[in-house]
Design a protein that fits this description.
- It comes from Natrarchaeobaculum aegyptiacum.
- Belongs to the IMPDH/GMPR family.
- The structure is a single chain.
- This protein has about 475 residues and is α/β, with parallel strands linked by helices.
- It is built from 17 helices and 20 strands.
- Strands 4-5-11-12-13-14-15-16 form an 8-stranded parallel beta barrel, surrounded by 7 helices.
- Helix 2 runs parallel beside helix 7 and helix 12 packs across helix 15.
- The longest helix has 19 residues.
- The chain starts with 14 loop residues before the first strand and ends in a 17-residue tail after the last helix.
- The model has no long low-confidence stretch (mean pLDDT about 95).
- Bound molecules: ribavirin monophosphate (RVP).
Length: about 475
Protein backbone atom coordinates (compact mmCIF):
# COMPACT_ATOMS: atom_id res chain seq x y z
CA UNK A 1 0.00 0.00 0.00
CA UNK A 2 1.04 3.60 -0.38
CA UNK A 3 1.49 3.77 3.37
CA UNK A 4 4.49 1.55 2.93
CA UNK A 5 6.08 3.61 0.19
CA UNK A 6 8.08 5.46 2.77
CA UNK A 7 10.75 8.11 2.45
CA UNK A 8 14.17 7.46 3.89
CA UNK A 9 15.57 9.54 6.70
CA UNK A 10 19.26 9.68 7.62
CA UNK A 11 21.33 10.49 10.63
CA UNK A 12 24.94 11.28 11.50
CA UNK A 13 26.35 7.78 11.04
CA UNK A 14 24.72 7.38 7.64
CA UNK A 15 26.78 10.08 5.99
CA UNK A 16 30.27 11.55 5.66
CA UNK A 17 31.50 14.83 4.24
CA UNK A 18 32.95 14.41 0.78
CA UNK A 19 36.56 15.68 0.79
CA UNK A 20 37.19 18.52 -1.66
CA UNK A 21 40.06 20.60 -2.95
CA UNK A 22 41.10 23.02 -0.25
CA UNK A 23 43.25 26.01 0.49
CA UNK A 24 41.90 26.29 4.01
CA UNK A 25 44.09 25.37 6.95
CA UNK A 26 41.83 24.19 9.77
CA UNK A 27 43.07 26.70 12.31
CA UNK A 28 42.19 29.50 9.89
CA UNK A 29 38.61 28.34 9.40
CA UNK A 30 36.24 30.92 10.87
CA UNK A 31 33.41 29.45 12.95
CA UNK A 32 31.49 32.71 13.40
CA UNK A 33 27.79 32.07 12.91
CA UNK A 34 24.32 33.12 14.00
CA UNK A 35 22.27 31.44 16.69
CA UNK A 36 19.30 33.67 16.07
CA UNK A 37 18.61 36.64 13.85
CA UNK A 38 20.43 39.12 16.05
CA UNK A 39 22.81 36.99 18.08
CA UNK A 40 26.14 36.09 16.55
CA UNK A 41 28.59 33.73 18.23
CA UNK A 42 32.30 33.04 17.72
CA UNK A 43 31.82 29.28 17.88
CA UNK A 44 28.39 27.96 16.83
CA UNK A 45 27.91 25.78 19.87
CA UNK A 46 25.22 25.91 22.57
CA UNK A 47 24.89 24.04 25.84
CA UNK A 48 21.49 22.40 26.32
CA UNK A 49 18.71 23.81 28.51
CA UNK A 50 18.83 20.88 30.91
CA UNK A 51 19.09 20.82 34.69
CA UNK A 52 22.24 18.70 34.55
CA UNK A 53 23.87 20.89 31.90
CA UNK A 54 23.24 24.63 31.98
CA UNK A 55 23.03 26.94 34.95
CA UNK A 56 24.90 30.20 35.36
CA UNK A 57 28.39 28.65 35.71
CA UNK A 58 28.00 26.84 32.41
CA UNK A 59 26.44 29.86 30.68
CA UNK A 60 29.32 32.08 31.83
CA UNK A 61 31.94 29.62 30.60
CA UNK A 62 30.15 29.04 27.28
CA UNK A 63 29.88 32.76 26.49
CA UNK A 64 33.45 33.49 27.61
CA UNK A 65 34.72 30.88 25.19
CA UNK A 66 32.67 32.06 22.27
CA UNK A 67 29.50 29.96 22.45
CA UNK A 68 26.20 30.32 24.24
CA UNK A 69 24.61 28.64 27.24
CA UNK A 70 20.86 28.16 27.47
CA UNK A 71 19.56 28.22 31.02
CA UNK A 72 17.14 25.37 31.84
CA UNK A 73 13.68 26.10 33.22
CA UNK A 74 13.42 23.58 36.04
CA UNK A 75 13.66 26.44 38.55
CA UNK A 76 11.42 29.16 39.92
CA UNK A 77 11.17 32.50 38.15
CA UNK A 78 13.06 34.15 41.01
CA UNK A 79 15.89 31.64 40.74
CA UNK A 80 15.96 32.18 36.99
CA UNK A 81 16.29 35.94 37.40
CA UNK A 82 19.14 35.41 39.86
CA UNK A 83 20.91 33.09 37.43
CA UNK A 84 20.52 35.57 34.58
CA UNK A 85 21.92 38.33 36.82
CA UNK A 86 24.94 36.18 37.63
CA UNK A 87 25.75 35.70 33.97
CA UNK A 88 25.08 39.30 33.04
CA UNK A 89 27.27 40.66 35.81
CA UNK A 90 30.09 38.11 35.49
CA UNK A 91 32.37 40.11 33.22
CA UNK A 92 30.84 43.52 33.53
CA UNK A 93 33.28 46.34 32.82
CA UNK A 94 31.50 48.66 35.23
CA UNK A 95 30.57 46.99 38.50
CA UNK A 96 27.20 48.61 39.23
CA UNK A 97 26.77 50.90 42.21
CA UNK A 98 24.76 48.39 44.27
CA UNK A 99 27.54 45.84 43.97
CA UNK A 100 30.44 48.17 44.78
CA UNK A 101 31.97 47.89 48.25
CA UNK A 102 32.05 51.47 49.54
CA UNK A 103 33.31 53.13 52.72
CA UNK A 104 31.40 55.61 54.79
CA UNK A 105 33.38 58.81 55.65
CA UNK A 106 32.52 58.34 59.32
CA UNK A 107 34.28 54.99 59.47
CA UNK A 108 37.66 54.50 61.08
CA UNK A 109 40.59 53.07 59.17
CA UNK A 110 40.21 49.84 61.10
CA UNK A 111 36.56 49.50 60.19
CA UNK A 112 37.24 50.06 56.52
CA UNK A 113 40.08 47.57 56.60
CA UNK A 114 37.74 44.99 58.08
CA UNK A 115 35.04 45.64 55.50
CA UNK A 116 37.52 45.31 52.63
CA UNK A 117 38.97 42.10 54.04
CA UNK A 118 35.52 40.63 54.55
CA UNK A 119 34.37 41.52 51.03
CA UNK A 120 37.64 40.45 49.46
CA UNK A 121 38.39 43.77 47.77
CA UNK A 122 41.56 45.82 47.80
CA UNK A 123 39.99 49.26 47.78
CA UNK A 124 36.75 51.17 48.17
CA UNK A 125 35.36 54.53 47.12
CA UNK A 126 34.50 56.69 50.11
CA UNK A 127 30.94 57.83 49.57
CA UNK A 128 28.70 60.07 51.69
CA UNK A 129 25.03 59.38 52.33
CA UNK A 130 24.03 61.27 49.17
CA UNK A 131 26.11 58.91 47.10
CA UNK A 132 28.76 61.53 46.37
CA UNK A 133 32.34 60.29 45.91
CA UNK A 134 34.63 62.00 48.44
CA UNK A 135 37.72 59.90 47.92
CA UNK A 136 39.05 56.42 47.50
CA UNK A 137 40.83 54.22 49.99
CA UNK A 138 42.91 51.18 49.17
CA UNK A 139 44.57 48.65 51.40
CA UNK A 140 47.97 50.03 50.38
CA UNK A 141 46.95 53.42 51.89
CA UNK A 142 46.54 51.92 55.34
CA UNK A 143 49.47 49.57 55.78
CA UNK A 144 51.03 50.06 59.24
CA UNK A 145 54.33 51.39 57.92
CA UNK A 146 52.52 54.44 56.56
CA UNK A 147 51.93 55.47 60.14
CA UNK A 148 48.24 55.67 59.76
CA UNK A 149 46.50 55.30 63.06
CA UNK A 150 43.84 52.61 63.01
CA UNK A 151 41.50 54.89 64.89
CA UNK A 152 41.85 57.74 62.42
CA UNK A 153 38.86 58.55 60.31
CA UNK A 154 39.06 57.12 56.82
CA UNK A 155 38.91 60.63 55.35
CA UNK A 156 42.39 61.26 56.73
CA UNK A 157 43.93 58.24 55.04
CA UNK A 158 42.06 58.26 51.73
CA UNK A 159 43.16 59.81 48.45
CA UNK A 160 40.84 62.74 47.92
CA UNK A 161 41.89 63.68 44.43
CA UNK A 162 40.06 60.81 42.85
CA UNK A 163 40.55 59.82 39.23
CA UNK A 164 37.04 59.10 37.97
CA UNK A 165 35.49 58.10 34.68
CA UNK A 166 32.08 58.85 33.24
CA UNK A 167 29.33 56.40 32.44
CA UNK A 168 30.19 55.72 28.82
CA UNK A 169 33.80 54.84 29.61
CA UNK A 170 35.22 52.02 27.50
CA UNK A 171 37.66 49.31 28.51
CA UNK A 172 40.67 50.74 26.70
CA UNK A 173 40.15 54.23 28.08
CA UNK A 174 39.75 52.95 31.63
CA UNK A 175 42.85 50.81 31.24
CA UNK A 176 44.88 53.81 30.08
CA UNK A 177 43.64 55.93 32.96
CA UNK A 178 44.67 53.30 35.46
CA UNK A 179 48.00 52.73 33.78
CA UNK A 180 48.81 56.43 33.69
CA UNK A 181 47.91 57.05 37.33
CA UNK A 182 49.22 53.69 38.58
CA UNK A 183 45.91 52.85 40.18
CA UNK A 184 43.84 49.69 40.38
CA UNK A 185 40.31 51.06 40.32
CA UNK A 186 38.38 54.01 38.93
CA UNK A 187 35.00 55.10 40.28
CA UNK A 188 32.47 55.87 37.58
CA UNK A 189 30.46 59.01 38.41
CA UNK A 190 27.66 61.02 36.86
CA UNK A 191 27.64 64.82 36.26
CA UNK A 192 27.00 65.44 39.91
CA UNK A 193 29.87 63.27 41.08
CA UNK A 194 27.46 60.62 42.37
CA UNK A 195 28.79 57.07 42.30
CA UNK A 196 27.47 55.03 39.37
CA UNK A 197 29.89 52.11 39.54
CA UNK A 198 33.49 51.00 39.60
CA UNK A 199 35.96 49.79 36.98
CA UNK A 200 38.82 47.63 38.21
CA UNK A 201 42.09 46.57 36.61
CA UNK A 202 41.35 43.00 37.61
CA UNK A 203 38.05 43.17 35.73
CA UNK A 204 39.71 44.54 32.61
CA UNK A 205 42.46 41.93 32.60
CA UNK A 206 39.87 39.20 33.04
CA UNK A 207 37.93 40.46 30.03
CA UNK A 208 41.12 40.49 27.97
CA UNK A 209 41.65 36.83 28.66
CA UNK A 210 38.47 36.00 26.75
CA UNK A 211 39.02 37.48 23.30
CA UNK A 212 36.30 35.37 21.66
CA UNK A 213 33.67 36.03 24.31
CA UNK A 214 30.13 36.60 23.13
CA UNK A 215 28.88 39.88 24.57
CA UNK A 216 25.88 42.17 24.26
CA UNK A 217 26.02 45.86 23.30
CA UNK A 218 26.85 46.75 26.89
CA UNK A 219 29.76 44.33 26.98
CA UNK A 220 27.96 41.80 29.19
CA UNK A 221 28.08 38.08 28.42
CA UNK A 222 25.18 36.80 26.39
CA UNK A 223 22.91 33.92 27.33
CA UNK A 224 19.79 32.11 26.25
CA UNK A 225 16.96 31.14 28.58
CA UNK A 226 14.47 28.31 28.12
CA UNK A 227 10.83 29.19 28.69
CA UNK A 228 7.54 27.41 28.30
CA UNK A 229 5.18 28.64 25.57
CA UNK A 230 2.46 28.82 28.23
CA UNK A 231 4.23 30.87 30.87
CA UNK A 232 4.17 34.53 29.88
CA UNK A 233 5.35 35.76 33.29
CA UNK A 234 8.52 33.67 33.06
CA UNK A 235 9.19 34.91 29.54
CA UNK A 236 8.68 38.54 30.53
CA UNK A 237 10.85 38.16 33.62
CA UNK A 238 13.65 36.59 31.57
CA UNK A 239 13.39 39.34 28.99
CA UNK A 240 13.50 42.05 31.60
CA UNK A 241 16.45 40.45 33.36
CA UNK A 242 18.42 40.68 30.12
CA UNK A 243 18.15 37.29 28.43
CA UNK A 244 19.42 37.71 24.87
CA UNK A 245 17.37 34.86 23.45
CA UNK A 246 14.29 33.12 24.79
CA UNK A 247 14.11 29.48 23.75
CA UNK A 248 10.53 28.29 23.52
CA UNK A 249 11.30 24.89 24.92
CA UNK A 250 9.00 22.09 23.80
CA UNK A 251 9.38 18.52 22.60
CA UNK A 252 6.99 19.16 19.69
CA UNK A 253 6.63 22.73 18.50
CA UNK A 254 4.49 21.82 15.50
CA UNK A 255 1.50 22.07 17.76
CA UNK A 256 -1.15 24.79 17.48
CA UNK A 257 -1.11 25.68 21.17
CA UNK A 258 2.66 25.91 21.24
CA UNK A 259 2.74 28.11 18.17
CA UNK A 260 0.04 30.43 19.55
CA UNK A 261 1.88 30.74 22.86
CA UNK A 262 5.22 31.31 21.12
CA UNK A 263 3.74 34.05 18.95
CA UNK A 264 2.27 35.78 21.96
CA UNK A 265 5.60 35.70 23.74
CA UNK A 266 7.45 36.87 20.65
CA UNK A 267 5.31 39.98 20.39
CA UNK A 268 5.64 40.77 24.10
CA UNK A 269 9.43 40.59 24.48
CA UNK A 270 12.48 42.39 23.19
CA UNK A 271 14.79 39.37 23.16
CA UNK A 272 15.09 37.14 20.13
CA UNK A 273 12.79 34.13 20.25
CA UNK A 274 13.98 30.71 19.08
CA UNK A 275 11.24 28.10 18.74
CA UNK A 276 11.63 24.33 18.92
CA UNK A 277 11.83 21.53 18.58
CA UNK A 278 10.68 20.55 15.13
CA UNK A 279 11.88 18.13 12.51
CA UNK A 280 9.95 18.67 9.29
CA UNK A 281 9.48 21.14 6.45
CA UNK A 282 5.84 21.81 7.33
CA UNK A 283 6.73 22.66 10.90
CA UNK A 284 9.44 25.04 9.73
CA UNK A 285 7.00 26.75 7.40
CA UNK A 286 4.75 27.55 10.37
CA UNK A 287 7.60 29.14 12.32
CA UNK A 288 9.55 31.17 9.78
CA UNK A 289 7.11 34.10 9.87
CA UNK A 290 7.73 34.99 13.47
CA UNK A 291 10.64 33.01 14.93
CA UNK A 292 14.16 34.46 15.17
CA UNK A 293 15.57 30.96 15.07
CA UNK A 294 14.34 27.37 14.81
CA UNK A 295 15.62 24.46 16.86
CA UNK A 296 15.59 20.97 15.37
CA UNK A 297 15.49 17.61 17.06
CA UNK A 298 12.72 15.09 17.58
CA UNK A 299 14.24 12.25 19.54
CA UNK A 300 17.97 12.28 18.74
CA UNK A 301 19.15 13.10 22.29
CA UNK A 302 21.40 10.64 24.07
CA UNK A 303 19.10 10.45 27.10
CA UNK A 304 15.93 10.72 25.02
CA UNK A 305 13.54 7.81 24.60
CA UNK A 306 10.85 9.71 22.69
CA UNK A 307 11.25 7.60 19.55
CA UNK A 308 11.00 4.33 21.44
CA UNK A 309 8.21 5.41 23.78
CA UNK A 310 6.07 7.27 21.25
CA UNK A 311 7.18 5.68 18.00
CA UNK A 312 7.65 9.16 16.54
CA UNK A 313 10.76 11.03 15.49
CA UNK A 314 13.03 12.04 12.66
CA UNK A 315 16.67 11.03 12.19
CA UNK A 316 18.63 14.18 12.76
CA UNK A 317 20.48 14.80 9.48
CA UNK A 318 17.23 14.59 7.52
CA UNK A 319 15.38 16.67 10.11
CA UNK A 320 17.97 19.45 10.00
CA UNK A 321 18.15 19.41 6.23
CA UNK A 322 14.36 19.61 5.81
CA UNK A 323 13.98 22.46 8.27
CA UNK A 324 16.98 24.33 6.84
CA UNK A 325 15.54 24.10 3.31
CA UNK A 326 12.62 26.24 4.44
CA UNK A 327 14.32 28.39 7.08
CA UNK A 328 17.25 29.46 4.93
CA UNK A 329 14.88 30.96 2.38
CA UNK A 330 13.53 33.21 5.11
CA UNK A 331 16.86 34.06 6.69
CA UNK A 332 16.00 32.24 9.91
CA UNK A 333 18.94 30.51 11.64
CA UNK A 334 18.63 26.80 12.44
CA UNK A 335 20.02 25.04 15.52
CA UNK A 336 20.63 21.28 15.43
CA UNK A 337 19.79 19.99 18.92
CA UNK A 338 20.69 16.53 20.19
CA UNK A 339 22.51 13.38 19.17
CA UNK A 340 25.94 14.96 18.71
CA UNK A 341 28.62 12.67 20.15
CA UNK A 342 31.70 13.82 18.25
CA UNK A 343 32.94 17.00 16.61
CA UNK A 344 32.36 15.27 13.27
CA UNK A 345 28.63 15.01 14.06
CA UNK A 346 28.55 18.74 14.82
CA UNK A 347 30.06 19.77 11.51
CA UNK A 348 27.85 17.25 9.64
CA UNK A 349 24.86 19.02 11.20
CA UNK A 350 26.16 22.31 9.78
CA UNK A 351 26.61 20.69 6.37
CA UNK A 352 22.98 19.57 6.56
CA UNK A 353 22.01 23.22 7.03
CA UNK A 354 22.37 24.10 10.70
CA UNK A 355 23.85 27.45 11.70
CA UNK A 356 24.67 26.22 15.19
CA UNK A 357 24.53 23.04 17.25
CA UNK A 358 23.27 22.30 20.77
CA UNK A 359 24.77 19.60 22.97
CA UNK A 360 23.82 18.03 26.27
CA UNK A 361 25.78 14.86 26.98
CA UNK A 362 29.00 16.29 25.59
CA UNK A 363 29.03 18.98 28.27
CA UNK A 364 27.23 17.26 31.16
CA UNK A 365 30.48 15.78 32.47
CA UNK A 366 32.33 19.08 32.69
CA UNK A 367 33.14 20.94 35.85
CA UNK A 368 30.77 23.79 35.00
CA UNK A 369 27.71 21.56 34.66
CA UNK A 370 25.45 21.44 37.74
CA UNK A 371 25.63 18.41 39.97
CA UNK A 372 28.39 16.67 41.83
CA UNK A 373 31.05 14.21 40.80
CA UNK A 374 30.39 10.60 41.84
CA UNK A 375 32.86 7.73 41.74
CA UNK A 376 31.85 4.28 40.53
CA UNK A 377 34.35 1.43 40.12
CA UNK A 378 37.16 3.92 40.47
CA UNK A 379 35.93 6.15 37.65
CA UNK A 380 34.50 9.63 38.07
CA UNK A 381 31.07 10.50 36.70
CA UNK A 382 28.50 13.29 36.78
CA UNK A 383 24.77 12.86 36.66
CA UNK A 384 23.05 13.48 33.32
CA UNK A 385 19.34 13.10 32.83
CA UNK A 386 16.67 13.86 30.27
CA UNK A 387 14.29 16.70 31.06
CA UNK A 388 11.53 14.20 30.30
CA UNK A 389 12.90 11.65 32.77
CA UNK A 390 10.94 10.91 35.93
CA UNK A 391 13.59 12.57 38.09
CA UNK A 392 13.65 15.82 36.13
CA UNK A 393 9.87 15.97 35.83
CA UNK A 394 9.50 15.47 39.57
CA UNK A 395 12.03 18.09 40.55
CA UNK A 396 10.64 20.92 38.48
CA UNK A 397 7.52 22.49 37.19
CA UNK A 398 8.62 21.44 33.74
CA UNK A 399 5.78 20.96 31.33
CA UNK A 400 7.93 20.09 28.36
CA UNK A 401 6.84 16.49 28.57
CA UNK A 402 4.03 16.89 31.04
CA UNK A 403 0.87 18.90 31.63
CA UNK A 404 -0.22 17.77 35.06
CA UNK A 405 1.86 16.45 37.89
CA UNK A 406 0.99 12.84 38.78
CA UNK A 407 0.86 11.74 42.37
CA UNK A 408 2.70 8.44 42.00
CA UNK A 409 5.99 7.76 40.22
CA UNK A 410 4.49 5.04 38.06
CA UNK A 411 1.93 7.46 36.66
CA UNK A 412 4.63 9.31 34.75
CA UNK A 413 5.16 8.33 31.14
CA UNK A 414 8.73 9.49 30.76
CA UNK A 415 10.48 10.16 27.45
CA UNK A 416 13.95 10.31 28.91
CA UNK A 417 16.31 8.45 31.18
CA UNK A 418 18.54 9.32 34.11
CA UNK A 419 22.15 8.48 33.58
CA UNK A 420 25.74 9.25 34.41
CA UNK A 421 28.46 10.51 32.11
CA UNK A 422 32.24 10.41 32.59
CA UNK A 423 33.66 13.39 34.41
CA UNK A 424 35.63 15.54 31.97
CA UNK A 425 37.19 18.52 33.78
CA UNK A 426 36.78 22.12 32.63
CA UNK A 427 34.51 23.04 29.74
CA UNK A 428 37.26 24.95 27.98
CA UNK A 429 39.09 21.88 26.71
CA UNK A 430 35.89 20.14 25.60
CA UNK A 431 34.87 23.19 23.63
CA UNK A 432 38.35 23.44 22.18
CA UNK A 433 38.16 19.86 20.88
CA UNK A 434 34.69 20.36 19.49
CA UNK A 435 35.51 23.61 17.71
CA UNK A 436 38.85 22.26 16.50
CA UNK A 437 37.23 19.19 14.97
CA UNK A 438 34.64 21.35 13.24
CA UNK A 439 37.43 23.46 11.77
CA UNK A 440 39.11 20.27 10.52
CA UNK A 441 35.90 19.39 8.71
CA UNK A 442 35.92 22.82 7.08
CA UNK A 443 39.52 22.21 6.02
CA UNK A 444 38.62 18.89 4.31
CA UNK A 445 35.81 20.60 2.44
CA UNK A 446 37.81 23.72 1.61
CA UNK A 447 35.54 26.29 3.23
CA UNK A 448 36.89 29.22 5.24
CA UNK A 449 33.59 30.34 6.76
CA UNK A 450 30.39 28.72 7.96
CA UNK A 451 28.20 30.15 5.17
CA UNK A 452 30.77 28.99 2.62
CA UNK A 453 30.88 25.56 4.24
CA UNK A 454 27.09 25.21 4.15
CA UNK A 455 27.21 26.00 0.45
CA UNK A 456 30.21 23.90 -0.53
CA UNK A 457 29.81 20.77 1.59
CA UNK A 458 28.39 17.54 0.14
CA UNK A 459 27.55 14.23 1.74
CA UNK A 460 28.27 10.68 0.71
CA UNK A 461 26.01 7.95 2.01
CA UNK A 462 27.88 5.18 3.78
CA UNK A 463 27.15 1.55 4.63
CA UNK A 464 27.54 -0.19 8.00
CA UNK A 465 30.93 -1.40 6.69
CA UNK A 466 31.94 2.19 5.98
CA UNK A 467 30.77 3.17 9.42
CA UNK A 468 32.88 0.43 11.03
CA UNK A 469 35.85 1.59 8.99
CA UNK A 470 35.36 5.16 10.24
CA UNK A 471 35.96 4.25 13.84
CA UNK A 472 39.21 3.02 15.29
CA UNK A 473 39.12 -0.67 14.41
CA UNK A 474 41.11 -3.86 14.80
CA UNK A 475 43.31 -2.33 17.45
CA UNK A 476 43.33 -2.07 21.19
CA UNK A 477 43.46 1.59 22.17
CA UNK A 478 46.29 2.20 24.60
CA UNK A 479 46.13 5.96 25.13
CA UNK A 480 42.73 7.58 24.97
CA UNK A 481 42.49 10.58 22.67
CA UNK A 482 40.92 13.73 24.13
CA UNK A 483 38.24 13.81 21.42
CA UNK A 484 37.40 10.18 20.85
CA UNK A 485 36.00 7.28 22.74
CA UNK A 486 34.59 4.25 20.95
CA UNK A 487 30.86 3.48 21.47
P1 LIG B 1 22.40 15.09 23.63
O1 LIG B 1 23.39 16.18 23.28
O2 LIG B 1 22.41 13.98 22.64
O3 LIG B 1 22.61 14.59 25.03
O4 LIG B 1 20.94 15.73 23.53
C1 LIG B 1 20.54 16.86 24.26
C2 LIG B 1 19.14 17.25 23.87
O5 LIG B 1 18.22 16.22 24.16
C3 LIG B 1 18.56 18.45 24.57
O6 LIG B 1 19.05 19.68 24.10
C4 LIG B 1 17.06 18.27 24.34
O7 LIG B 1 16.65 18.76 23.09
C5 LIG B 1 16.91 16.77 24.31
N1 LIG B 1 16.32 16.27 25.55
C6 LIG B 1 16.44 16.75 26.80
N2 LIG B 1 15.71 15.96 27.61
C7 LIG B 1 15.20 15.01 26.83
C8 LIG B 1 14.31 13.93 27.26
O8 LIG B 1 14.14 13.68 28.43
N3 LIG B 1 13.74 13.24 26.30
N4 LIG B 1 15.57 15.21 25.58
Amino acid sequence: SSKLEVPEALTFDDVLLRPKESRVEPDEADLTSNVSKSVEVSVPILSAAMDTVTESDMAIAMARHGGLGVLHRNMTIDQMVEEIDRVKSADELIIPHEAVVTADPEMTVREVDEVMAREGVGGAPVVNTNGEVLGIISSTDIRPHLEVNEDDQVTEAMTDEVVTADEDVEAREAFELMYEHKIERVPVVDDENLLVGLVTMQGILQRREYGEAVRDEEGRLRLGVAVSPFEMDRAEAADEAGADILFIDTAHAHNRNVIDGAKEIESAVEADVVVGNVGTREAAAELVDFADGIKVGIGPGSICTTRVVSGAGMPQITAVSQVADVASEHGVPVIADGGIRYSGDAIKAVAAGADAVMLGSYFAGTEEAPGRVVTMNGKKYKQYRGMGSVGAMKSGDSDRYLKEEPEEDDEYVPEGVEAATPYKGPLKSELHQLAGGMQSGMGYVGAATIPEFKERSEFVRISPAGQAESHAHDVVITDEAPNYSPN
